[in-house]
Amino acid sequence: MQTFPERTDYAIVILVWLAGLGAAAQFGKVAISLDGFRERYPVSEVALGFLISCVGLAGLTLGVLGGILIIRSGIRRAFVSGLVLASILSASQAILPPYPVMIALRILEGLAHLAIVIAGPILMARHSSDRARSAVMTLWSSFFGISFVLIALLAPPILNAGGLPALLLAHAGYMFVLALALWSILPAPLTPQVSALRDVPLTARGIVSLHMSIYKSPVTSAAALGFVWYTATYISVLTYLPGFVSEDSRTGLSAGLPLASILISLTLGIVLLRMVTTVRAVQIGYLATAITSLPLLYFYGNDAAFIIACLVLLGATGIVPGASFAALAALNSTDEARAHATGAIAQMGNVGNTCGPPILAAIALRTGIIGTVVFIVTLSLCGVLVHGILARRRASVGKL
Questions:
Q1: pLDDT tens digits, residue range 151-170?
Q2: CB of 102 within 8 A of CB of 51?
Q3: Angle at 357 between CA 354 and CA 360, to 5 degrees
Q4: Does domain 199-400 have CATH number 1.20.1250.20?
Q5: Of 229, 227, 196, 218, residue with least CA distance to 331
Q6: How far is residue 378's CA from residue 391's CA, in Å, rounded to a whole number?
Q7: What angle do CA 349, 145, 158 make, to 5 degrees?
Q8: Is 0.70 surpassed by the pTM of this model?
Q9: Do residues 148 and 258 lie in contact, with contact meaning Cβ atoms separated by under 8 Å?
Q10: Which residues have CB under 8 Å from 227's CB, separation 6+?
Q11: Mind listing the pLDDT tens digit for each residue in 120-141?
Q12: Which residue, 83, 96, 203, 254, has most beta carbons within 10 Å?
């Protein structure tokens, strides 16, 4: 059994979290400046959208494999290498190459993103005490939403001053500075880690076998199989709920939704984790999400009340990500197990991000707010049910 510190190393925790903000900015730097990319690349809107989403291809296809490679190469080395690669690729993108080259650079950037988001939570858990670990993992879970809020505030003046190249170079510089800081502060392993992951054959058969063993396990798969319903819901409602209010109200609602989620995650979410188990907290978050979606049916058409209902709903969703990452750390006690579980959560998170929005788009187009609420309730109840099934399986083999 791996040992963990009695005290949390907050310097490492904060620097790793800041690196997570930069990883999320790999999506946000394009999303926030899409008008500039539209001017530079005269392609279809679908092709422009692919500039954002193609970063997620690596996580969608290589999430579990990434966990193997990170353990084999060393978590410290993999994390810092991901930051350096992200910096180089962002700087390369600043020359605004032709569209096919830019897509290739963005897909490669997905590899850097994967290294950061798999190694990051492992490092956060490794350098936090038992008492602080739930709060630390909740902090990690907030990196995506907080990054988008910060980009929305910081990107416009940078774009006004120097256009797309300035924004991309600013991101490159940010990642490189963090790489230097983390390489200097993260302790090098005193002895090589002995890990079963080192013996996994990197063949198609070996990788398929590893996927099956991870997703069959009610321990290593729990965080991921519970998290996919959240990512499918979260990115979908962020995208489409503003469309149910007047155009004048949409900008404010779009900005307020992630803030509501972050606020609850970092306050009530942390308090809840001190009162109940991590898995129970995830289930409570999903139930709260299902219940708070129902008022949308009543308030639709009244923008002021509908916006408040949306903010309450997104606040409820904020309980789920922090509790999910806390469950990952609580259920998996070694770096090897956490590499398995974090690779799976990266993979399932990208499944949700990829599948949720087009499904809700089709539903909302045909059935409006009623179908949207049914979508939210259905996915939330799936999250409760899946965690219930996996908890019973763990109890049956004595792994609560």
A1: 878 888 999 999 999 999 99
A2: yes
A3: 140
A4: yes
A5: 218
A6: 20
A7: 125
A8: yes
A9: yes
A10: 320, 321, 324, 345, 348, 349, 352
A11: 988 988 898 888 888 888 888 8
A12: 83
